[in-house]
Amino acid sequence: MSADGQSSIAGYLETVFSLKGKVILFTGAAGGIGSVICKGYARAGAQVALCDMDADKLTELEKEIRAEGGSASSFTLDLTRMGDAADCVKRVIAACGRIDVLFNCAGINKREGLLDVEEGTYDRIMQINLKGLYFISQEVAKHMRESGKGNIINMASHNSVGMLGGCSVYGAAKSAVTALTRSMAVEWAKFGIRANAIAPGHILTPLTTVTWEHPTRSAYLKERIAMERPGTPEEIVGVAILLASDASSYMSGMMVHIDGGCLAGGVPWDFDTRYN
Fold first, then answer.
1. From the CB of residue 141, how many other CB atoms can be counted at a distance below 10 Å?
2. Which of 91, 96, 113, 156 has the most C-beta neighbours closer than 10 Å?
3. Average pLDDT over residues 143-150
């Protein structure tokens, strides 16, 4: 292909998928998945407002993004504190001028059986994974309503539709996130706001390494994933860019699964075929 042809392709892809000029408020930015998506957003041209409780990790991430020539700024955010969401949104708007995209990625989990969960654990998981997401979305939507457009991306989970043992509270919260995403899409479309969710499958991060190194749990998971391996945070970035960009301008109220064929049915049973 000629240099002109390559330039034409690059120009077209940039027109469709570029995030240049977009301000993205990203919660849970310091996490294993969040930090990778934030870097991807910055590389695609976005100005990323990095929000998380961990100030040290935020500073490190901001430095990494800036070292690559990207645009990022850090804002501490504690979703367990009512009022912190509104304050964070105000600070981001004051610093960045506006918010074009909100990515709700903040989330926690503690694996316990239904009979083991105590009220404090239940409340903390729900506070961050659902209540915090709800009210920061509300604050950002008020701003987007004034500008007449906006885009919200929520981090759902495979546990939104399929469960593992010991994930009752987390699964309940993530199931609610998918329903909330549809509510946002329906109620806020008149304001020019669309909302979608990403449902990662079983992704390898520092927090899930212990599961993937477990002799029985790792085997259990691989049997249920058609690709027979965990995903990586980098494999979520492409869909994240799609949803944040104008390429998905007519897409709203949807949940996109990135799970290596887990929901499709996993590894099939033995069947007759000439091709092995």
1. 21
2. 156
3. 97
Of the candidates 58, 93, 97, the residue with the CA atom closest to the CA atom of residue 75: 58
Please say if the pLDDT value at position 207 is more than 90.
Answer: no
170 is catalytic: yes
- Average pLDDT of the chain? 96
Distance CA 134, CA 7 (A): 42
Domain residue extents for the chain: 79-86+93-258
DSSP 48: E
Angstrom distances, CA of residue 62 to CA of 26, 36, 233, 237, 267: 12, 12, 18, 18, 40
Candidate list 41, 170, 220, 250, residue with the active-site label: 170
Q: Which residue do the tokens 């940039």 mark? A: 14
Q: Cα 38 vs. chain centroid, distance in angstroms?
A: 10
CA nearest neighbour of 47 among 69, 79, 24? 24
- For residue 1, what pLDDT is reported? 55
3-class DSSP state of 85: helix
The architecture that CATH gives domain 79-86+93-258 is 3-Layer(aba) Sandwich (3.40)
pLDDT value at residue 225: 96
